[in-house]
TrEMBL record:
Its cofactor is Zn(2+). The lineage of its organism: Bacteria, Pseudomonadati, Pseudomonadota, Gammaproteobacteria, Lysobacterales. It is an enzyme of class 3 (hydrolase). One of its GO terms (cellular component) is cytoplasm. One of its GO terms (molecular function) is metallopeptidase activity. One of its GO terms (biological process) is proteolysis. It comes from Xanthomonas citri pv. citri. This is M18 family aminopeptidase. Pfam families: Peptidase_M18.
Protein backbone atom coordinates (compact mmCIF):
# COMPACT_ATOMS: atom_id res chain seq x y z
CA UNK A 1 0.00 0.00 0.00
CA UNK A 2 3.00 2.32 -0.48
CA UNK A 3 3.15 3.32 3.19
CA UNK A 4 -0.23 5.06 3.14
CA UNK A 5 -2.07 2.71 5.50
CA UNK A 6 -2.32 2.50 9.25
CA UNK A 7 -3.94 -0.03 11.57
CA UNK A 8 -4.59 0.41 15.29
CA UNK A 9 -5.78 -2.09 17.85
CA UNK A 10 -7.05 -1.87 21.39
CA UNK A 11 -6.96 -5.02 23.49
CA UNK A 12 -10.15 -5.28 25.51
CA UNK A 13 -10.72 -6.65 29.01
CA UNK A 14 -13.07 -9.46 27.94
CA UNK A 15 -11.81 -12.74 26.45
CA UNK A 16 -11.79 -12.94 22.65
CA UNK A 17 -14.38 -15.72 22.86
CA UNK A 18 -16.92 -13.08 23.94
CA UNK A 19 -16.49 -11.34 20.59
CA UNK A 20 -14.83 -8.24 19.24
CA UNK A 21 -15.69 -4.94 17.63
CA UNK A 22 -14.11 -3.97 14.32
CA UNK A 23 -14.16 -0.42 13.02
CA UNK A 24 -12.86 0.61 9.61
CA UNK A 25 -12.38 4.09 8.22
CA UNK A 26 -10.40 5.95 5.60
CA UNK A 27 -9.34 9.51 5.01
CA UNK A 28 -9.87 10.96 1.58
CA UNK A 29 -7.63 13.95 2.25
CA UNK A 30 -7.01 16.25 -0.66
CA UNK A 31 -3.41 16.01 -1.72
CA UNK A 32 -1.06 16.07 -4.67
CA UNK A 33 0.87 12.82 -5.12
CA UNK A 34 4.23 12.96 -6.87
CA UNK A 35 4.39 10.17 -9.46
CA UNK A 36 7.01 7.41 -9.24
CA UNK A 37 9.35 8.85 -11.91
CA UNK A 38 8.27 12.48 -11.69
CA UNK A 39 11.18 14.62 -12.84
CA UNK A 40 11.11 16.22 -16.29
CA UNK A 41 12.54 19.37 -17.85
CA UNK A 42 11.10 21.99 -20.17
CA UNK A 43 12.49 25.41 -21.15
CA UNK A 44 15.43 25.01 -18.71
CA UNK A 45 13.09 24.41 -15.74
CA UNK A 46 12.65 21.19 -13.74
CA UNK A 47 9.12 19.95 -13.04
CA UNK A 48 7.53 17.17 -10.97
CA UNK A 49 4.79 15.11 -12.62
CA UNK A 50 1.90 14.88 -10.13
CA UNK A 51 -1.63 13.57 -9.69
CA UNK A 52 -4.23 15.37 -7.60
CA UNK A 53 -6.34 13.22 -5.28
CA UNK A 54 -9.17 13.61 -2.84
CA UNK A 55 -12.06 15.31 -4.60
CA UNK A 56 -10.70 18.82 -5.00
CA UNK A 57 -10.98 20.94 -8.11
CA UNK A 58 -7.76 21.91 -9.90
CA UNK A 59 -8.41 25.65 -9.52
CA UNK A 60 -8.71 25.30 -5.70
CA UNK A 61 -5.03 24.32 -5.23
CA UNK A 62 -3.77 27.87 -5.80
CA UNK A 63 -5.50 29.08 -2.60
CA UNK A 64 -4.19 26.34 -0.29
CA UNK A 65 -0.89 26.36 1.60
CA UNK A 66 1.06 23.31 0.41
CA UNK A 67 4.00 21.33 1.76
CA UNK A 68 6.12 18.57 0.25
CA UNK A 69 6.59 15.45 2.39
CA UNK A 70 8.53 12.37 1.38
CA UNK A 71 11.07 9.73 2.22
CA UNK A 72 14.48 9.17 0.65
CA UNK A 73 15.89 5.65 0.97
CA UNK A 74 19.62 5.65 0.27
CA UNK A 75 21.49 2.74 -1.30
CA UNK A 76 22.96 1.82 2.11
CA UNK A 77 19.41 1.40 3.49
CA UNK A 78 19.30 4.54 5.62
CA UNK A 79 16.06 6.49 5.49
CA UNK A 80 15.81 10.29 5.42
CA UNK A 81 12.42 11.97 5.87
CA UNK A 82 11.87 15.21 3.94
CA UNK A 83 9.43 18.02 4.73
CA UNK A 84 9.50 21.27 2.75
CA UNK A 85 7.00 24.08 3.34
CA UNK A 86 5.65 22.91 6.70
CA UNK A 87 5.54 25.52 9.48
Amino acid sequence: CMGKSIAMFRIGKEPLENGMNILGAHIDSPRIDVKQNPLYENEELAYLDTHYYGGIKKYQWVTLPLALHGVIVKTDGTVQEVSIGEK
